[in-house]
Fe2OG dioxygenase domain-containing protein (Gossypium arboreum), 321 residues
Amino acid sequence: MAIDAEIEFPTIELRSSDLKRGTKGWNRLCKRVREACETFGCFDVVYKKISTKIREDAFELQKELVKVPVERKQKNTSPLPCHGWVGPCEQVSMLYEGFGVADASNYDSVNNFAQLMWPNGQPRFTDTIHTLATQMEELNKLIWLMLTDSYGLQEDSLKMNYKTLVRMMKYLAPPPGEYERGFFAHTDKPISTLICEDKSGLEIEVNNDQWIKLTNLSPSSFVFIVGDPLKAWSNGRLKSVNHRVMMSGDKDRYSIAAFVIPNEGTIIKAPKELIDEKHPQLFKEFDFMDFFLYAISDPAKHIDSGELLHAYASVSPLVFN
């Protein structure tokens, strides 16, 4: 499990002056975003339109959230993966705790969550998380637009009705001198993910069992991660990256992730423009929610996370020994 600090992880700043479609600056950014997603499956996006204050406020409110009684935390439930509260456990990590706020760009959804955690409500939490979720959703849409433009596709090639699931996660500092797993290695099952963190810990696999830790991210950095369905949409051109959280040092880590969860009935399929003789079709079209639920099914437990998409939707299924 070697850690390689010499590989240069892509950092792309989205400056307002370069965000006018059709300009040279826009086209350059689109190319860099596509290349980062094809090579690494993720990149560090510096986006100053989301203020550092709203992030700092959100992290402070997370510290209040983890202090609420367990019986309230247990009310954060859902039949869908990743949508509810998960406390420290062997299946994930004894260092991990996470909460899920579904449809977090909807004010009422965040407010309903806040009232579960604080019976008298917590208006500051609701306002802050709703604002951050809405802004992260806008950033995700911008990155999607850059991908479609870079491939020369129509904007509606990657348009779907979806809800933004926000997960607020805490990772305890490990025992002194230890280097411990905060979250197991996996590829993401939502379409795409944006993550911001208050302390480094996120690692990505760049080659077989060769990992890099994302360090020195700026206060305006978000990590964009390609999910398995986005890889399928791109006909395998975009990489769905294996990533994990590893903890060291004496400080707890807080992170906030915004996941794209399409509405039920959404079909994932590659645009015809991305299928040709050089790039034959790799994946059958599939229902997103069926795949999302398959990922937590009993048959899926015996398949590596990074192979689930191929097992489920590959035109030529993998053979497992």
Summary: The chain has one domain: 2-313. The two ends are 23 Å apart (CA to CA). The domain at 2-313 is CATH 2.60.120.330 (Jelly Rolls). The chain has a mean pLDDT of 94.
